[in-house]
């Protein structure tokens, strides 16, 4: 039944945003854990560990996120393992975000000059101590813009979780369109709501970057 | 027993042989100036002593430890062998104090207050006590290099390696760094320094080693060797750098 677009629809959209935010939080947390491990593997002095990290990144970057969602939600249930949509989403998004964040952070770690590692090593610091006290603090500043850039992508990519049943912002927009038949207005609203999530992040990123630069 | 002993050290990068059987001993308290053309293996030789460069043949001993033995704890070794680089390599995100206290607090587990006193003491030696709270990018090249020396001194090493430490400096800043080295020499520090400052080598070094084609081509007491080179290669090199 087609009805008119009402104020309540906007409230529904705003309410659906909480799933977008929750999915993003899960994806970013999981992605951070996986990504840190991958970045460390990729700069490790041990060859086989570096290859393992590279293999992971290539495998995940070469496959669609949608496929991972399907594998974890529908795939596992075919072999008899029932997974809740939350677990499936957390796993798929962590794998996906981990590969991209890992690669971003590897680049940031490697942007710090070889001579900084050498200076640390020459003072008797271990590999982990060189990372912790010398390399990471310098790499963090470099990492902020691309990391926030990816986070913004991630917010928008949470819409893919609709395929396994999440009624997040985009899916709610679809549903609203179906009942009101006002796609133009509804999707403009959806876009505006995404903007209210993403824009503050990029602004904050720029400010943080400036502050860290001064504190250096 | 010699503090440092290099025996027939061979270093290759792929097919390029950088060190071709170098043997050299350094006694405690000696100051060795390593000279030679660029590409003759001077810096590589120095970096083999603290294990920054793995070697393909021969052996490097430091105070009874075989540096090139895979079982050697290089972290331990490097606490006793300081190195100062051409490009300073200070940590840009840390204050002068933290640059100096990082290794003592992390590696030697010294407490922060004792470490700050130590930082003051080593900065006094290089004449920069008032810069303790500055950041590296607020210092001139000469000052940065002196902080780098202080940072190494804070670990109280038994041997100091200097890799062309004045080459990246403006000419008017070279003097202040060399003065610090002279004081360290007076204090009896054992030093190996790769340098292009022939006047300094003559004045301060106890021995000069001339590197040529990956070999320790000629060596001897500094003043004598520089004044009366035996090999034509050293003679050619000296006449090229001195004129």
Provide a descriptive summary of the structure in words.
The complex is a heterodimer of chains A (216) and B (243). Chain A has 216 residues and is mainly α. Chain A has one domain (7-215): MetI-like fold. Chain A is 82% helix and 0% strand. In chain A, helix 1 packs antiparallel against helix 2 (47-61) and helix 7 runs antiparallel to helix 8. In chain A, 35% of the residues are buried. Chain B is an alpha/beta fold and 243 residues long. Chain B has a domain at 90-156. Chain B has nine helices and ten strands. Chain B has helices at residues 42-49, 74-78, 96-106, 112-125, 141-153, 171-186, 198-204, 222-227, 232-242, and strands at residues 4-13, 16-26, 31-35, 57-62, 65-66, 81-84, 159-163, 190-194, 207-212, 215-221. Chain B has a six-stranded mixed β-sheet with strand order 6-7-8-3-9-10, sandwiched between helices. A four-stranded antiparallel β-sheet of chain B has the order 2-1-4-5, with helices on one face. In chain B, a hairpin with a 2-residue loop joins strand 1 (4-13) and strand 2. In chain B, helix 3 crosses helix 4 and helix 3 (96-106) packs parallel to helix 5. The mean pLDDT of chain B is 93. The interface between A and B is medium-sized, with 17 and 24 residues.
Poorly predicted tracts of residues of chain A? none
Query: What does the average pLDDT of chain A come to?
Result: 91
Structural class based on helices, strands and sheet pairing of chain A: mainly alpha
Q: What is the share of helical residues of chain A?
A: over 70%
* CATH superfamily (homologous) name of chain A: MetI-like
Rg of chain A computed from alpha carbons, rounded to a whole number of angstroms: 21 Å
Shape of chain A: flat
Separation, N- and C-terminal Cα atoms of chain A = 61 Å
Spell the H/E element sequence of chain A.
Answer: HHHHHHHH
Separate helix tally of chain B: 9
Question: Class by helix and strand content of chain B?
Answer: alpha/beta
Q: Roughly how many Å apart are the termini of chain B?
A: 39 Å
Radius of gyration of chain B: 18 Å
Major pleated sheet of chain A: none
CATH topology-level name of chain A: MetI-like fold
Shape of chain B: globular
Strand content of chain A: under 5%
Secondary-structure element order of chain B, N to C: EEEHEEHEHHHEHEHEEHH
Largest sheet of chain B: 6 strands, mixed
Strand percentage of chain B: 25-35%
If you average the pLDDT of chain B, what whole number results?
Answer: 93
């Amino acid at each position: 039944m087609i009805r008119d677009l009402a104020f309540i629809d906007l409230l529904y959209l705003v309410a659906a945003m909480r799933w977008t935010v929750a999915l993003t939080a899960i994806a970013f947390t999981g992605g951070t854990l996986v990504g840190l491990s991958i970045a460390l593997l990729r700069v490790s002095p041990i060859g086989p560990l570096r290859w393992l990290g590279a293999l992971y990144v290539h495998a995940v970057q070469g496959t669609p996120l949608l496929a991972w969602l399907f594998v974890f939600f529908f795939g596992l249930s075919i072999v008899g393992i029932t997974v809740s949509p939350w677990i499936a989403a957390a796993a798929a998004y962590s794998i996906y975000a981990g590969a991209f964040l890992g690669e971003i952070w590897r680049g940031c770690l490697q942007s710090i000059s070889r001579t900084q590692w050498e200076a640390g090593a020459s003072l008797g610091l271990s590999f982990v101590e060189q990372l912790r006290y010398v390399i990471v603090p310098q790499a963090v500043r470099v990492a902020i813009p691309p990391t926030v850039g990816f986070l913004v992508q991630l917010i928008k990519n949470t819409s893919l979780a609709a395929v396994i049943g999440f009624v997040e912002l985009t899916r709610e927009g679809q549903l609203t369109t179906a009942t009101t038949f006002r796609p133009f207005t509804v999707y403009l609203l959806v876009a505006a709501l995404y903007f209210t999530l993403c824009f503050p992040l990029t602004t904050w990123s720029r400010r943080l970057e400036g502050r860290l630069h001064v504190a250096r | 027993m010699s503090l440092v002993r290099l025996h027939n050290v061979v270093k290759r990068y792929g097919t390029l042989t950088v060190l071709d059987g170098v043997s050299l001993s350094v006694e405690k308290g000696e100051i060795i100036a390593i000279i030679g053309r660029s590409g003759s293996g001077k810096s590589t030789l120095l970096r083999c002593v603290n294990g920054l460069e793995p070697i393909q043949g021969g052996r490097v001993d430091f105070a009874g430890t075989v540096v090139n033995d895979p079982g050697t704890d290089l972290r331990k070794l490097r606490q006793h062998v300081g190195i100062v680089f051409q490009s300073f390599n200070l940590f840009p995100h840390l204050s002068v104090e933290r640059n100096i206290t990082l290794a003592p607090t992390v590696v030697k587990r010294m407490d922060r207050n004792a470490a700050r006193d130590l930082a003051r003491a080593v900065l006094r030696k290089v004449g920069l006590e008032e810069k303790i709270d500055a950041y590296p990018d607020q210092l001139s090249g000469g000052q940065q290099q002196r902080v780098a020396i202080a940072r190494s001194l804070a670990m109280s090493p038994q041997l100091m390696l200097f890799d062309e430490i004045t080459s990246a400096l403006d000419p008017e800043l070279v003097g202040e760094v060399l003065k610090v080295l002279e004081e360290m020499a007076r204090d009896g520090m054992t030093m190996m320094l790769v340098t292009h400052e022939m006047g300094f080598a003559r004045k301060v070094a106890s021995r000069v080693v001339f590197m040529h084609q990956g070999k320790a081509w000629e060596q001897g007491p500094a003043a004598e060797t520089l004044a009366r080179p035996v090999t034509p290669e050293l003679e050619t090199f000296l006449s090229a750098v001195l004129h």
